[in-house]
Write a structure and sequence with these properties.
The complex is a heterodimer of chains A (about 525) and B (about 260).
Chain A (H helix, E strand, L loop, with lengths): L2 E11 L8 E9 L3 E5 L6 H7 L3 H4 L4 E8 L2 E2 L12 E4 L12 H12 L3 H14 L15 H14 L4 E5 L7 H18 L2 E5 L3 H4 L5 E6 L2 E5 L1 H7 L5 H9 L8 H8 L16 E12 L2 E12 L3 E5 L6 H9 L6 E6 L10 E4 L12 H11 L7 H7 L15 H13 L5 E5 L7 H16 L3 E5 L3 H7 L2 E6 L2 E6 L1 H7 L6 H6 L6 H8 L1
Parallel strand pairs in A: 3-8, 3-9, 6-7, 7-8, 13-17, 13-18, 15-16, 16-17
Antiparallel strand pairs in A: 1-2, 1-4, 4-5, 9-10, 11-12, 11-14, 18-19
Helix pairs in contact in A: 3-4, 3-5, 4-5, 9-19, 12-13, 12-14
Chain B lengths: L2 H16 L4 H18 L8 H18 L8 H27 L2 H5 L7 H29 L10 H25 L17 H23 L18 H9 L14
Helix pairs in contact in B: 1-4, 1-8, 2-4, 2-9, 3-4, 6-7, 8-9
Classes of the chains: A alpha/beta (about 525), B mainly alpha (about 260).
Chain lengths: ~525, ~260
């Protein structure tokens, strides 16, 4: 078999960085492999992916030793553009990578550069539109489509050029579960039917762990490549079924729902736990309708959320989740109906604080601690040390770092800390787990619980069903701007085919977290 | 419409503006530009840059006029400076319209191969204005929701994320273009733009309009530069007004794209 990617003793340090991003990495990826890069946030996954087509070091500078052969070509001798026919790359933030304006033209851009025959190009664009299910978007501007749609367009644009190796950095972080499944199925097909090599980084292992052939485990710049189950076991992370396996002591740990079911056998249906009654009403929406551009985004939404509740707002891309949060925050004017927070119209940043989808929008201080201090000062909060807030989210060790030097997941935690520091009684988070590893997610969950326990109210929009299963006391499901389900996680998620967490899939309605199942099996 | 027709339109409208300081002609050009903008703007953030150029035009007018107050102030001087300022402002508005009705990267692809790189750099520079406008709105809202009201004192909270994110996005874009083979030299074109009858009509009309003004400037007719000392009421000539009217034709062309 021929190898698609060969990495020989590669070490890399970014300019001015204190420690190397990659340390003596040696590995081989054979053609037709579906490879998954896993590891904690900031461990070097994104850097490695950019090594594969020479963006590192051609675009970053820094000190690079060792050798990388991508499709047989040395990345030091060939700049990324000379590898464009062999390696395609989809970056973490697809919005910033678009070159042209219309979706269709964006798909053709890479082929234009490669000099593909126009007739072939037309056919290929149509195939990609179908493969990623984005045909309706063809005439739209790439700047006017939603985050999830952008991810699919970026993948289609990368694939259109017909690469042998496809490299993707968290390709489904903004996709709803259905959309993510669709993308992974498409990738799987490319690997199996066309022998393409796919290398991707992903934190939500429940989405991919069972499908990949090879795992690359990252730990502080060191990489171990091997069988997915072995690598995931060694890294002490993995999808909820793997977590369950570790709790119960199965060896090897299961990676898929099917494996877990075989190991555990059937469990009786779990009785719905009694959810504690929420405290006094904090957020009250009455027949709220809102528009987004020319389209209706919310229709006749009635919602009452009390103190101490943690509400997961779910639904497919474009269902109105962000508009709902922005309405509660008081920055999206209702078309009709009312929004009240604490008995009056919400004052943005005072009654409700919101952490946006792009954490970069709020980061401007020189240090992480400074970022938190700014909020404390702006809100006139004395007697709280910034470090204390960072500690709660487990990022105290980053206090002296420059926020822009951090990985995407770390930035998100910093932004969350900076926003939560304002002590607004209602905390709103839009997609709070992009780029977060399971451990960071666990810390975020603890943070949200403690905010709620202190009488705060949390609403977060997410596609991450496992986070919702772990932390939410209530799930509100939106579709087409309307509330279609509202209740405790066990009943709302357990009911759904698409949104069911792994434990529900494996053991039936009522089971949400590995801890619950482990307790029952003990 | 073919981007080439838009380039021709903008060049000709610019030439017409350049040849005159007559406030009536300038006002009509502004009206025509706004009409074309309203009818043909591309949906999305690019269109918002029109407002930025309009505001920049206004500032130019005010600054140019107020410069007079550094020297001898009389009605003639003030009028002269104001008319000069108005001409610059009109140029900016014409350019803003061009920006709002075309996709800068679509224009780049018309450039002959050897001019591709500089054209691309120009397109990137052009795309910065609308991106920045969109980002300022986003960052302001995000900071408000964090409890920081943007004012002069808290300007860094607005400016730093806008500039740094802008820089990061520019780098990502450059990386993405390189990774997708930009600059390999071999290029084919997906859906080349065609010269439709509408584009031809607009181009011819634009050239005629510019020609009329150039001839008028050459023969010193039509009161293109009304006297400011002594101050005199500007005259207009119907033929020149009609020529400016020709520049409104693109407004009636079929829309460049349809959003579902």
């Amino acid at each position: 078999m021929t190898e698609a990617l060969r990495v020989d003793a590669v070490s890399f340090r970014y300019p001015d960085a204190a420690r190397p991003a990659l340390v003596d990495v040696t590995l081989e990826i054979e053609e037709g492999t579906f490879a998954l890069a896993v590891g904690p946030t900031g461990a070097g996954k994104s850097t490695f992916l950019r090594v594969a087509n020479g963006l590192v070091p051609h675009f970053t500078g820094g000190s690079f030793t060792g050798r990388v052969l991508a499709a047989g070509r040395d990345t030091l001798a060939y700049p990324p553009r000379a590898l464009a026919d062999a390696v395609a790359f989809v970056p973490q933030d697809p919005g910033a990578s678009f070159v042209l304006d219309r979706v269709e033209e964006e798909l053709a851009y890479g082929m234009e550069n490669l000099g593909v025959d126009p007739a072939h190009m037309r056919r290929r664009v149509e195939e990609m539109l179908d493969l990623l299910d984005i045909e309706p978007l063809r005439g739209r501007s790439v700047r006017s489509i939603s985050g999830g749609e952008r991810q699919r367009v970026a993948i289609a644009a990368a694939l259109a050029a017909g690469p042998r190796i496809l490299v993707l950095d968290e390709p489904t972080s903004q996709l709803d579960p259905q959309g993510a499944e669709h993308v992974f199925a498409a990738l799987q097909r490319l690997v199996h039917d066309q022998g393409m090599t796919v290398i991707l980084a992903e934190h939500r292992l429940e989405r991919v762990a069972g499908q990949v052939d090879l795992a690359l485990g990252f730990d502080e710049g060191r990489v171990t490549a091997g069988d997915p189950a072995a690598v995931i076991r060694r890294l002490a992370m993995g999808p909820p079924v793997a977590r369950l396996g570790r709790l119960v002591g199965w060896d090897p740990v299961p990676l898929t729902v099917r494996d877990a079911r075989r190991l555990a056998g059937a469990l009786p249906a779990r009785l719905h736990p009694v959810t504690p009654a929420p405290g006094d009403t904090r957020v009250e929406l009455r027949r709220l309708s809102a528009r987004h551009g020319d389209a209706g985004a919310l229709r006749d939404v009635d919602l009452i959320v009390g103190e101490g509740e943690i509400v997961a707002v779910m639904g497919r891309n474009g269902a109105g989740k962000t508009t709902l949060l922005r309405s509660i925050a008081g920055v999206h004017a209702p078309a009709s109906g009312t929004v009240q927070v604490g008995g009056h119209a919400p004052r943005p940043g005072i009654d409700a604080a919101l952490c946006p989808q792009e954490p970069e929008s709020v980061l401007f201080a020189e240090t992480v601690a400074g970022e938190v201090a700014v909020t404390l000062k702006a809100r006139g909060i004395d007697g709280v040390r910034p470090e204390a807030v960072l500690m709660e989210l487990g990022i105290a060790d980053l206090a002296a770092h420059h926020p822009r030097d951090l990985s995407a997941g770390q930035r998100l935690l910093v932004a969350t800390a900076a926003i939560a520091a304002g002590q607004a009684p209602v905390l709103l988070l839009d997609e709070p787990t992009r780029g977060l590893d399971p451990e960071a997610k666990e810390r975020l969950a603890r943070f949200l619980r403690s905010h709620a326990a202190d009488g705060g109210t949390v609403l977060f929009a997410t596609h991450d069903v496992e986070l919702a299963a772990t932390v939410a006391t209530r799930v509100v499901m939106l579709a087409g701007g309307e509330v279609i389900a509202d209740g405790d996680p066990a009943s709302v998620l357990g009911d759904s085919h698409v949104f069911a967490p792994q434990m529900t899939r494996a053991f039936g309605p009522g089971w949400l977290t590995p801890e619950q199942v482990a307790e029952a099996l003990a | 419409m073919h981007p080439g027709a838009w380039i021709l339109w903008a060049t000709c409208a610019g030439m017409v503006t350049f040849t005159t300081t007559n406030p009536f002609y300038l006002a009509l050009i502004v009206a025509v530009a706004f009409f074309v903008y309203a009818a043909q703007r591309v949906p999305g953030p690019t269109a918002r840059s029109f407002r930025v150029f309009a505001i920049a035009g206004l500032i130019t007018l005010v600054v140019r006029t107020s410069l007079v107050f550094l020297g001898t102030v009389d009605a003639g001087n003030v009028a002269f400076a104001a008319l000069e300022g108005a001409r610059l402002a009109t140029l900016l508005i014409v350019f803003g319209t061009f920006n709002a009705v075309t996709d800068p990267f679509g224009v780049v692809r018309l450039a002959p191969r050897r001019f591709h790189e500089p054209a691309l750099a120009a397109a990137l520079a052009l795309s910065i204005a609308p991106r920045t406008v969109a980002m300022v709105g986003r960052v302001r809202e995000a900071q408000t929701l964090r409890g920081i009201l943007t004012s002069w004192r808290t300007l860094p909270s607005l400016a730093v994320p806008v500039l740094e994110t802008g820089m990061e996005e520019a780098v990502t874009l450059a990386e993405s273009m390189d990774a997708r083979g930009h600059g390999r030299g071999r290029r084919t074109r997906y859906r080349p733009a065609h010269w439709t009858p509408a584009a031809v009509v607009v181009s011819v009309a634009s050239v005629v309009a510019a020609g009329v003004f150039v001839v008028a400037a050459w023969t010193q007719r039509g009161d293109l530069h009304p006297s400011t000392s002594p101050l005199a009421w500007p005259q207009v000539q119907p033929a020149l007004l009609a020529a400016i009217g020709l520049l409104a034709l693109p407004a009636f062309a079929p829309r460049p794209r349809e959003e579902p």
